[in-house]
Amino acid sequence: MTEASSKHGRLIVLSGPTAVGKGTVEAALRRRHPEVWVSVSATTRAPRPGEENGVNYWFMDDDEFERDEDEGKFLETAVVHGMAHYGTPLGPVLEHLATNTPTILEIDLQGARRVRERAAELGLDVEYVFIAPPSFDELVRRLVGRGTETAEQREKRLETARVELAAESEFDVTLVNDEVDATAEALWGVIAEEYGL
């Protein structure tokens, strides 16, 4: 256990394949447990309908993102689906952990791996939680039902999802997202244990 982890709860990294429902589970968790803070990622992708800057993501152009990356302002960055840059702003994460606020990063597999690489360097203790679909067929159904991607984008996401599913063993805990509220409560159980709540 690191010196930082003896004083504060662990950073919770929530990951899993595309369209598994990470965001839906996280939203259900926050409705029941508003004391949980979820990091807002930065991205260079365009906003989807209804998304707000600073709420869903910090939307940035490529130059702004690259400048912040060069200045070390991200905990991790990744190019997702070969299309857009994503990153976790480091400052707010450290601020919330310092006040022992239950802190979650909802990120893709690349991001989770980069956090693992930097955690020791930053003195962070991390619990890695994998959200899995009940089956691959259900994952396909959810992705198609979302209706936010073109056929080509969906195929690229499904290729990525196959790789992401194979990485489940890299995580400390797996939660199968069969039913959103039950999965959110299971996630709260992990957080409560880590933070002594």
TrEMBL record:
Location (main, coarse): cytoplasm
GO molecular function: ATP binding; GMP kinase activity
Listed SMART domains: GuKc
PROSITE patterns: GUANYLATE_KINASE_1, GUANYLATE_KINASE_2
Protein role: Essential for recycling GMP and indirectly, cGMP.
Family of the protein in this entry: Belongs to the guanylate kinase family.
Protein name listed in UniProt: Guanylate kinase
Gene symbol of the encoding locus: gmk
